Amino acid sequence: MAARVEAATMGGEIDEESDERGSMWDLDQKLDQSMDEEAGRLRNMYKEKKFSALLLLQLSFQSLGVVYGDLGTSPLYVFYNTFPHGIKDPEDIIGALSLIIYSLTLIPLLKYVFVVCKANDNGQGGTFALYSLLCRHAKVKTIRNQHRTDEELTTYSRSTFHEHSFAAKTKRWLEDKKSRKTALLGLVLVGTCMVIGDGILTPAISVLSAAGGLRVNLPHISNGVVVLVAVVILVSLFSVQHYGTDRVGWLFAPIVFLWFLSIASIGIYNIWKHDTTVLKAFSPVYIYRYFKRGGRDRWTSLGGIMLSITGIEALFADLSHFPVSAVQIAFTAIVFPCLLLAYSGQAAYIRNHPDHVADAFYRSIPGSVYWPMFIIATAAAIVASQATISATFSLIKQALAHSCFPRVKVVHTSRKFLGQIYVPDINWILMILCIAVTAGFKNQSQIGNAYGTAVVIVMLVTTLLMTLIMILVWRCHWVLVLVFTVLSLVVECTYFSAMLFKVDQGGWVPLVIAAAFLLIMSVWHYGTLKRYEFEMHSRVSMAWILGLGPSLGLVRVPGVGLVYTELASGVPHIFSHFITNLPAIHSVVVFVCVKNLPVYTVPEEERFLVKRIGPKNFHMFRCVARYGYGDLHKKDDDFEKRLFESLFLFIRLESMMEGGCSDSDDYSICGSQNHQFKENNENVATFDTFDSIESITPVKRVSHTVTASSQMSGGVDELEFINRCRDAGVVHIMGNTVVRARRQARFYKKIAIDYVYAFLRKICREHSVIFNVPQESLLNVGQIFYV
């Protein structure tokens, strides 16, 4: 920062007074000190990531309850779904066990725990987290509302490519055509919809399988009673979601840990008592012999085998609370060996009692510990269900941030953990669908077929996204990428081919659920994209604004007008529509753009970008509020207060800089370590058109002496003026844009826009509710455009 402010004068140059120079130096030192404190904060943040060994073990233990509940409860129903028609050959049990062992090794262990989990976005997992990583490394977003200053965020990490590298070629290939960007987003939406389907099916099959244990010791109980018990548990589970998991989350890890120890102990007991020869299933030769015996039943049994690896999608989506190393330790030290022992023990029991395959888990439990084990199994099933429900809430929040889901209420349930949220509307939809699936199918087999279909499609989507991550983010050699992709697709397509035989046996359920959610998300994103494109192409020319003069050709009444727009640059059409129909406008006008970036979170001190539009006497500003897909607009957030604080800080800093500010591409980053101000020392003006990105307003050189004190005085005067206007009243001006299909549009577009999108707009939350805008201060401006 300069300690001296000079300007062209008629008589020469005048030095600043020493006390003014000293005050400017003091301010410069304070800014430097704040920058040093910010750097120190970042260094401490990176140091905190280096966990001690004791803390790492503690986090590994805690991750059991959040991450591995779903995967851990699979022994409840795997063997029954593998042999729904009974066991014809005892050797098939060894072959099935061998398939389970190597499925757990190849997919959860090698692929997800040691590869996919490393592709997290600052600790966040899930399909949209992978998509956000790709959006930062390539221009693949369908809504292009990013500014170059967004890349300066401390949380915005990206890699650079050599121009002729394979990564650069792949990046250009993705960016070349709009259809490829749309296809990539469509792939992400398919994976997300399947995980939502998983959030419906996991509670159904887990709770129903756990409640099914009642019929083993109480054979007189009918299947209807078991279904009723499962429905009561499910209703109770979904009814307490609004309390969040923060209060009872400490119970999850001990429950799941006790579950893993119990099933491992029972597995060892059954191996020792019934048949130790099942351990030969660790040889892959028995997989070859299993399929060599032939028969369609053996191939379709892969659908049941695949249920042994369900929960991996929730594992990745629930990654946010723990470091990757803690998740890896928990899986390799506890989850993996306990599951192998549990499945081996069940196989040993079934070898001696093949007719008990339908209730293999509960019948293999020693009688003395049956009821304690039933209670533990039910508790573990509830924890597993909670994990998938939480993962569904997180994915919905991420979809909201990417404009791929209608605006719904999101409640923050924990003051400690940012990722613990509750979405009321989605919660009740999940509950209704979950009860419908449980009561409609009434048995594990059909629900298992539906469950397997959802999981295998999510795995395929993750593999395709990981291929791009390895190329663009990790910059792996193409040979390594090819090996990973081919091996993953061979295994997963094999499972997928087996699930195709079970589409008519319940596998259609997740397809229908996913299709419904995919329709909603696609139509909403399409409508949002068209609204943004309309605003971009109908922006008001700065030449027209400047031609109106400081009064904008209207009466400037006391007060502040906050004009909300989706544009981060240019003057929106809603403003011209407003001043054309009303004879007055507020003395201070601030264009407010709230946009979401492909990062998990934006630090509070880097939230707002502020700049001036036009000359100072226009009193027009732009404020861009940036949020990550994990940030929440909480009820206690005073958005308006923080906006004005950022505006005042901008004016103070601007008053210390020489030259006027304009509506250029340069922002002042209030509260950040970077402050960019552009000096305009020429007597020329460059005006924008509808297609340009931004405008530069004329700034004429002052022909008299300007000292630092006079500039500071001007800044104080403007602050007082804005404060007086703020006291006079703040009005929030929001656009109510109605989207309609053109008369000559095709019938499917008319249905999508005029009916589906219009209905979603009608039932979704308004922006005024999200930002806690008082109704008495709200002014809606309506307009219609056709697509």
TrEMBL record:
Q: Which residues form the K+ potassium transporter integral membrane domain?
A: 60-545
What domain of life does the UniProt record list for this protein's source? Eukaryota
- InterPro entries for the chain: K+_transporter (IPR003855), K_trans_C (IPR053952), K_trans_N (IPR053951)
This protein's membrane topology, according to the annotation, is: Multi-pass membrane protein
Q: What is its main location?
A: membrane
Q: What are the protein's UniProt keywords?
A: Ion transport, Membrane, Potassium, Potassium transport, Transmembrane, Transmembrane helix, Transport
Q: Which NCBIfam families match?
A: kup (TIGR00794)
From the Swiss-Prot or TrEMBL record, give the protein name: Potassium transporter
Q: Which organism is it from?
A: Eruca vesicaria subsp. sativa
